[in-house]
Amino acid sequence: MTTFYVPVDAAARSVGADEVAAALAVLHGACVVRTGSRGMLWCEPLVEVDTDAGRVGYGPVTPTAARELADLAGAEPPPTSPLRTAYLGLVEQHPFLARQRRLTTARLGVIDPGDLADYERHGGWAGLRRAFTMTPDAVVAEVTASGLRGRGGAGFPAGVKWATVAGAPGTEKCICANGDEGDSGTFADRMLIEGDPGSLLEGMLIAGYAVGAHTGVVYLRSEYPDAITTLRRAVESARAAGILGPNVLGSGFAFDVDVRVGAGAYICGEETSMLESIEGRRGEVRSKPPIPALRGLFGRPTVVNNILTLATVPAILADGGSTYAAYGTDRSRGTQVFQLAGNIARGGLVEVDFGVTVRELVEGFGGGTRSGRPVRAVQLGGPLGAYLPESALDLPMDYEALAAAGFMLGHGGIVVFDDTVDMARQARFAMEFCVKESCGKCTPCRVGSQRGMESLDRFLAGADPARELPLLDRICTTMAKGSLCAMGQLTPMPVRSALTHFPEDFAGGRR
User: Fold this and answer.
1) Given this model, what pLDDT does residue 155 score?
2) Measuring CA to CA, which of 137, 216, 251, 452 is 20 to 30 A from 349?
């Protein structure tokens, strides 16, 4: 019997993966396994065929062409075959994957996300079992030694946050996984949940054991229906298997997970807004202090970590914090999951050590622009991140190096623009985004973004730059210094980076 692997990831399904899987399922002697995506999104629907040498890939594959795969049995198609250009060879040896260091995403595209036994066969629960042989304090120390920092954008050391919660008074503590992935050009949280939900659950279990929490909540965007369904099924399966519940893996430790769905507010990516939403209130930023680590969900000490942060923890506990810390650079230890999007030839997901340059990601992995035109700008860190000019593409991707140059890494999203982009209009988009997504609690963000958008509208309509641009700068200063949270504080970043690095777009030279 020939085994075929077809992604059930939302991106693959959007371009026909379900139809391809159905076409393969009716073939005599065929077994179809639905997996997550490898992250080679330009090849979707990607079909892998199990062979003695390993999995051989073909992509993109149409339902009609899929019928030929049973006869090929992993061989290279003849020159006349419609699958000729889709042949990828051994998938693990493809340059896009072979150059990566997949730790957090090691099982993506490999396992069936609905089969926790398959998760265990590929190393699942090893980190949790090792954690149960250690004291909670030792688990916190291991995470601290790894150098793991929050992957949601702030980059705060995970071990420090865990230690704060562990030492906070109170018998009821919580673990909250923030999956409100709203940044443009980001999709790693979604892909991980849809392709490897067990790693998230294992990370939450380890965090709960380390800090003394028995309750976990995963907060997901309503725009991620496939991820919601996959995770809820995984939670039910874990309960049935005794991995969640009153006696986790027979350890005597109790922990359970609830999945909550947000209504689609970008601001709920901010940790206190997310907590407000989970508690049933409008998603608005809370004033700090107190910080969530001391008073978080329903007033309890709470660990709030991003999906990728928690999903990295099992590998750290399985292999040791020092092993993880050996990767990366300086204070940015380990690996980061980058997402390539925008005008790019090979969009997808890339996990490599911190320290890789932007150029290596955009040109080496991404293959440059999809249009074939020169790269003019790259936005890092989502819609509130700065725009890098082409001359800055050799910057290393680590927190400190980017911050020193006036940029930020954020959630690892990379959006590429070619030389036809109008950066004045991109600056206007940043202000408009803040107008629509601000929670409205503080005046600098709520009013400042509206006034900034109006100023840019006047400029784009032909107003005198000598009058509008100084006004825009003052608005940016007020927002950056006076806003309550990063929403308003960071909105000036893309605006000012566009003004700094692309001044010709604000002087009439390109208009």
Assistant:
1) 85
2) 216
Separation CA 76–CA 401 (nearest Å):
44
How big is the CA angle at 127 (ends 126 and 129), to the nearest 5 degrees? 65
pTM metric for this prediction: 0.94
- Nearest CA-CA partner of 315 in 77, 71, 143: 143
How far apart (Å, rounded) are the C-alpha atoms in residues 124 and 200? Answer: 11
Cis status, amide bond into 289, omega within 30 of 0: yes
240's tokens: 């049935």
423-506: CATH topology is de novo design (two linked rop proteins) (1.20.1440)
Q: Which fold has domain 116-325?
A: Rossmann fold (3.40.50)
Above 90 in pLDDT, residue 11? yes
Cβ contacts of 37 within 8 Å, gap of 6 or more: 7, 9, 11, 12, 44, 46, 108, 109, 191, 194, 195, 349
**Residue 508: pLDDT band by 50, 70, 90 thresholds?**
low
Q: Which residue has the tokens 């007020």?
A: 478
How many alpha carbons fall within 13 Å on the CB side of residue 458? 14
Assess contact for 334 and 311: CB atoms under 8 A. no
The residues near 286 (Cβ < 8 Å, ≥ 6 apart) are: 272, 273, 275, 276
Beta strands 47-51 and 54-58 are: antiparallel
Compute the average pLDDT of residues 246-260.
Answer: 97
DSSP state of 40: B
Q: Which CATH code, of 3.40.30.10, 1.10.10.10, 3.40.50.10170, 3.40.50.150, is assigned to 2-98?
A: 3.40.30.10
